[in-house]
Backbone:
């Protein structure tokens, strides 16, 4: 089980006073296996995540979970908060209810089955509310 850090982890996530913000996490996968985690981007404590979209290219037959992990191993992470065992082919919109992040968190994709090779992109919309 590998942990893959997407280049978008280095990008700054907006956390100002606008009513909503969007952050994009993206990575080109090369033979990611079941159990591998892709750390896509950071969202700050207090944010209310209202929508997550998943866009994948050339990954039919691959199942993914999309969720979040609190930084520093804090309890309450949910690896499948937004998608659970979703087919990674094409574009999907989450039907999960809004999730308030109690701590700084990382949006994470976990390969559940198959071998993932291709582009994975998440578009996360949230209200930056602060703690």
Residues:
């Amino acid at each position: 089980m590998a942990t893959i850090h997407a280049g978008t982890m280095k990008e700054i996530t907006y956390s100002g006073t606008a009513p909503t913000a969007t952050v994009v996490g993206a990575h080109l996968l090369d033979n990611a296996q079941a159990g591998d985690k892709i750390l896509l981007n950071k969202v700050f404590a207090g944010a209310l995540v209202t929508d997550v979209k998943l866009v994948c290219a050339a990954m039919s037959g691959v199942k993914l979970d999309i969720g979040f992990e609190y930084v520093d191993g804090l309890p309450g992470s949910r690896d499948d908060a937004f998608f659970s065992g979703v087919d990674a082919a094409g574009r999907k919109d989450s039907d999960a209810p809004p999730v308030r992040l109690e701590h700084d968190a990382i949006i994470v994709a976990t390969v559940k089955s198959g071998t993932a090779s291709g582009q994975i992109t998440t578009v996360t919309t949230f209200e930056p509310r602060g703690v």
User: Anything to note?
Assistant: Residues 54 and 92 are 5 Å apart (CA to CA). The mean pLDDT is 91. Residues 3-127 form a domain with the Jelly Rolls fold (CATH 2.60.120). The chain has one domain: 3-127.
